[in-house]
Amino acid sequence: MNPEEAADLLLRDLSSSSAGLSSIEAQRRLSQYGPNALRRRRGVRWPVELARQFTHPLALLLWLAAALLVIVGSLVVAAAVVLIIVLNAAFAFIQEVHAERAVEALAEYIPQRAKVLRDGEPREVDAAELVPGDIAIIEEGDRIAADIRLLAGAIEADMSTLTGESVPTLRSASILDVDVPVLRAHDLVFSGTNCTGGEARGVVFATGMSTELGRIAALSERVKQEPSPLERQVRRVAWLIAAVSVALALAFIPVATFGVHLSLINSLVFAAGLLAGMVPEGLLPVITLALAVAVRALASRGALVKRLSAVETLGSTDVICTDKTGTLTENRMRPIAVWTASGVHDLEADSGTTAAGELLPTLARIASACNNARLTPGEEPSGDPTEVAVLLAARALGAETDAAHREGKRRWQFHFDPELKLMSTIDRDGDRLVVHTKGAPEALLPHCTTLLGPQGRPVPLDAAHHDLITAQVNAFATNGLRVLALAERPLPAGIRPPHRRADAEHELCFVGLIAMLDPPRPEVAEAVARCRTAGIRVIVITGDHPLTAAAIARRVGISGDSPTTVSGEQLDRLTEPELARLLSSEPDIIFARASPETKLRIADALRGQGHVVAMTGDGVNDAPALRRADIGVAMGRTGTDVAREASTMVLTDDNFASIVVAVRAGRRIYDNVRKFIIYIFAHATPEVTPFLVFALGGGLVPLPLTILQLLAFDVGSETAPALALSRDPAEPGLMHRPPRPRSEGVIRGPMLVRAWLFLGVMVSALQMAGYFYVLSSAGWHPGAPVGEGTPLHHAYRQATTMTFLGMIAGQIGTAFAVRTQRASLRSVGVLSNRYLLWGIAAELFLAAVFVYAPPFQSLLGTAALPVGDLLLLVPYPFVVWGADEARRYLVRRRTARHG
Ligand code: ATP
Questions:
Q1: DSSP character for 557?
Q2: What separation in angstroms does the CA of 700 have from each of 251, 414, 782, 861?
Q3: What is the 3 state secondary structure string of 18-84?
Q4: DSSP state of 182
Q5: How confident is the model at residue 350, as a pLDDT?
Q6: CA-nearest residue, atom 9 of ligand 1
Q7: PROSITE patterns attached here (predicted)?
Q8: 359 & 457 share domain
């Protein structure tokens, strides 16, 4: 059986034909076979995930403390510690599920598309709507959406998702394999693999879970997310603190036993409780949540981030390498003018034909033939925007632009190759065949030997013509226009169309130029200005002409009046150290006529210098550079599936401004993470101080805070405000400071000083002042007994309650203080974070329950406080916050003075 017979048989089996299915039949099959999507096996793994939350190292430390407490018989405290473990595990679990959902949901923002024949016409449909029997059209850069048997054409397929082999393999309709494993059959391509080159048609024979990918998906599970550098750093610090807590707790035992003559058991209880209070177990889940919130917010603003950790990388991005077309510009091209040997013809003026008249029909014929765009009346033009503009020019010049007419004449096509910057077709014109070529002028000229002269006859192309053409190209390009050159060559009668590119694209007759305008996006200039103030360098790397690139870059403010432009050719001659030197010595640089390899080299050079690089790209060949950059940015609308897959971020609106929005969000989140790290760390000092006072008091001062009160404080005040801080608005000046160096850790010395020694010490002082005030107003003097049954016992309970509430009041002040690092709180709005207000309300409510509900009174040893004492607490938050406000003011003044 030959390949054609096999294909016919398959088509018959699938009740289809090479013209594809009708929409009605496709609809019917969709309800029969179900959507072409993979079902995830969800839910099964959650017990494992939950169990993990109970067994991570910090939780184990807490379990150890609980076990110790059980052994020494302090069951109530042990129960409280277990409660902390459970609450935290539940919280962390919810955050993780949340985060995972946020990332998974992103997939829905970029539904995969597929090209099929429906009702005999090529049409783009949602990949989920593919059904067996559909005729699919596969082109370079497509992700293949179903299992397909090729019927015509040949492609290169990257099958690494299925086979693990990353070398692309040839798949062709004309090779029929029998008796080989399916994955090796040369005429089959599979869902989930990518087409890296060529073009083919094929019939869909399996969709959804029946595909090979579906079979694998049914077996495998979710991909594990790597912990981000941020999480790793915080985990390290959490460990450090855990170690310090253990050391402190251990040191407390001898001091309490010998210094204050506490029983060993009591000292152990204290030590274990202290440990449980100080371990920052809530830190990691809050970070996960903060990143997930950012990912979700970004998605709604046009930037889909595929990994949580990318958010923090975005925050430290200091170089953005961007394409021009579509990213800086609107990608809506409009033909403005054409040029032929008899002069320029303005397409926008209503002047009708000019002297160039005779040559224009030839130019228009090439423009229409060497083209894949479609102009359907009443619909938006479809296809590559450059080609749409070329086709519009052809129509304006009176050529036939109907797609069916064009396809009827086409015998062969050489796709646009971004390396060669050329595209050619071979078409029938009357009884002869003609090669039609279009491309970048400098790329096309070397393949031309003649010029279509003003008389409509080819004349030899000499140096003067070269100069004339180049001058015209430069004149167009300087105005920011994109210029395409067109040429043709009639083939001698009776020969077969050449199937090798080099055989077609030579001895061409240069016919003319088409100049088109792709205006810059209006919002880009402002985004570029923001990059400037934020210390982010923007480098344009474009396939377009140097002058066009320079004109656009100037217009949006990326470069000054005389940027250094480096062409692909010049770049090829540079060695790596020379390129590195060029990049660091020339601040204002544009790479034009760049090939995808250029991007890779530039990404490498910049990363080698320690920069954090975001790089945009849209073609198959851009994939390596997208992977190599710190943040690969692909286009959601115009890019290929392959580029989208290789990237870390996809812009749903293809807009440069969205990259800047994402960088800002990354910075903001990083700041917010720092805020709640300070907030959570600031707990430590007031938590330890009461025990320190007790231990150093040598038995004269009764314990100012019971262990259970400490744990209650931990539960009540840690999580809600920290969560709220992760949503805090950005501090002014966020985009007015240089990017964070790659090497800078999330936790820095000054932050710890501020948390432990400034905010923490202040809260401790207030808390102890309240304690001693209540105690001494009841007539207590150092050494007076306060135990159960003594006259001072009730006052002692009230005093510990005062310590407890003092800590809470102080921490409220801390929560407001940490909201800004340098600016005054007024500049961000005192009440601008309503989550924080709710968090504090919840905290106050909980505190009231702990102090006033009788069961908690007896459990925690609290007692109701008179109104007078409560009023004393009111200034606490203001003192803490106010002091920090003053400190920040001084810092600002000092830096202002020192420049
Ligand atoms: P950017 O990299 O900024 O998106 P670009 O779109 O100009 O720039 P390419 O698509 O690689 O980059 O195009 C490079 C050059 O190739 C263009 O400047 C143009 O001269 C030529 N070109 C682009 N599209 C076609 C096409 N369909 N047919 C022929 N030549 C083309």
A1: T
A2: 20, 93, 5, 20
A3: CCCECHHHHHHHHHHHCCCCCCCCCCCCHHHHHHHHHHCHHHHHHHHHHHHHHHCCCHHHHHHHHHH
A4: G
A5: 58
A6: 543
A7: ATPASE_E1_E2
A8: yes
Q: Which of 338-352, 518-532, 783-797 has the lowest average pLDDT?
A: 338-352
Domain assignment of residue 494, yes or no: yes
The domain in which residue 354 lies consists of: 337-517
Same structural domain, 667 and 643 = no
Atom 19, ligand 1: residue with shortest CA distance: 440
Catalytic entry in 158, 187, 323, 518: 323
422/415 Cα distance (integer angstroms): 8
Which pLDDT score, from 0 to 100, does residue 43 have?
A: 52
Question: Do 433 and 556 fall into the same domain?
Answer: no
Name the maximum alpha-carbon separation found in the chain: 120
- Return the ligand 1 atom nearest residue 540 CA: 3
Give the end of a domain, one of 162, 192, 222. Answer: 222
How far, rounded to the nearest angstrom, does the alpha carbon of residue 372 sit from its chain's CA centroid? 32
699 with 797, same domain? yes
- The reply to whether 530 and 509 lie within a common domain is no
Least confident of 34-43, 615-624, 740-749, 826-835: 34-43
pLDDT for position 505: 93
pLDDT digits (tens, 9 = 90+) for 506-521: 999 999 999 999 999 9
pLDDT of residue 349: 74
Gyration radius from the chain CA atoms = 35
**pLDDT the model gives residue 221:** 41
Q: How many helices (H) and strands (E) does the chain have?
A: 35, 24
pLDDT in tens, 689-715: 998 888 888 788 999 999 899 988 887
- What is the residue whose two structure tokens read 């059959």? 185
Q: Which tokens hold the place of 762?
A: 């202040």
Q: How far is the CA of 542 from the centre of ligand 1 (A)?
A: 8
Mean pLDDT value of segment 755-784: 94
Looking at residue 366, its pLDDT comes to 96
Ligand 1 centre from 608 Cα, in Å?
A: 29
Q: Which of 494, 517, 540 is the last residue of a domain?
A: 517
Q: Which of 416, 436, 600 to mutate to test the pocket of ligand 1 (most atoms within 8 A of CB)?
A: 416
Q: Judge whether 323 counts as a catalytic residue.
A: yes
pLDDT of residue 722: 83
pLDDT category of residue 585 using cuts at 50, 70 and 90? very high
Residues flanking ligand 1, CB < 6 Å: 323-325, 384, 386-387, 416, 418, 421, 423, 438-440, 482, 484, 542-544
**pLDDT at 224 > cutoff 50:** no
Residue 874 has pLDDT above 50, yes or no: yes
Same domain, 642 and 679: no
Q: Within a domain: residue 168? A: yes
Q: In angstroms, what is the span from residue 484 Cα to ligand 1's centroid?
A: 9
Residue 165 phi, psi dihedral angles, 5° rounding: -85, 125
Question: Are 591 and 541 spatial neighbours (Cβ–Cβ below 8 Å)?
Answer: yes
**CA distances (Å), origin 201, targets 3, 131, 133, 234:** 14, 15, 12, 52
pLDDT number for residue 61: 86
Does this model's pTM top 0.90?
no
Three-state DSSP class for 831? coil
SS3 698: coil
The domain that holds 320 is classified in CATH as: 3.40.50.1000
Does 276 map to a domain?
yes
Q: Give the chain's domain count.
A: 4
Sign of torsion over alpha carbons 325, 330, 333, 336: negative
Q: 391 and 353: one domain? A: yes
Q: Report yes or no on 67 lying in a domain.
A: no
Q: Return the closest-CA partner of residue 513 out of 469, 549, 543.
A: 469
pLDDT recorded at residue 574: 93
**Per-residue pLDDT at 641 exceeds 60:** yes
Mean pLDDT of 465-482: 95
